[in-house]
Amino acid sequence: MLVVVACATASTHPFPVSSLTVGDVELSVWIADDPTERRQGLRDVVGLPDGVDGMVFVYGTPGSASFEMENALIPLDIWWFDENGALIGTDEMTPCPAEPCEDYVSPGPVLTVLETPLGDHEFETGAVISNVENG
């Protein structure tokens, strides 16, 4: 089933919306804080609606995380944040129409992961993510 959320508004899309900051940049993001939401992520999304800058994946405990781009339609930057909220790495992810797809693995244990459209933001290693709330 194809789910298109490009035309969704903050009140009609399937994910809660929250504000967070990375360094001094404030973002409005969809929140994926349970296994089903994290598995869905931005798959089948043709574009983010106005006012949504990306998606944040929130985990209950720090650990290794792995993402792939099967059925993803837009190229993304992925930002890996450790348990202290510090940016420990980033990758550029390319859509993958069918398996096998590349795995993008965190460079260390993470508590929060942020996806934004490719090239929309530039954050330096060590930048801190804050004000992250579970949906």
Question: How does this model look, in words?
Answer:
With 135 residues, the chain is mainly beta. It has a single domain, classed as Protein of unknown function DUF192 (Jelly Rolls, Sandwich). The protein contains one helix and nine strands; from the N terminus they run E-E-H-E-E-E-E-E-E-E. The protein has a seven-stranded mixed β-sheet. It has a two-stranded antiparallel sheet with strand order 4-7. It is globular and about 35 Å long. The protein starts with 16 loop residues before the first strand and ends in a 5-residue tail after the last strand.
Which features characterize this protein?
single chain, 135 residues, mainly beta, Jelly Rolls, seven-stranded mixed β-sheet, two-stranded antiparallel ribbon, 1 helix, 4% helix, 39% strand, disordered N terminus
- Adjacency order of strands in the biggest sheet: 6-5-8-3-2-1-9
Amount of helix? under 10%
Extract low-pLDDT stretches.
Answer: 1-12
Strand content: 35-45%
Q: What's the Cα radius of gyration?
A: 14 Å
How would a crystallographer describe the biggest sheet?
7 strands, mixed
Give the CATH topology: Jelly Rolls
N-to-C series of helices and strands: EEHEEEEEEE
Q: Any idea what the shape is?
A: globular
CATH architecture: Sandwich
Total count of strands: 9
Find the structural class using helix and strand composition: mainly beta
Number of helices: 1
C-alpha end-to-end distance:
24 Å
Under CATH, the homologous superfamily reads Protein of unknown function DUF192
Overall pLDDT, averaged? 87
Q: Using the coordinates above, name the CATH class.
A: Mainly Beta
Domain count, please report it: 1
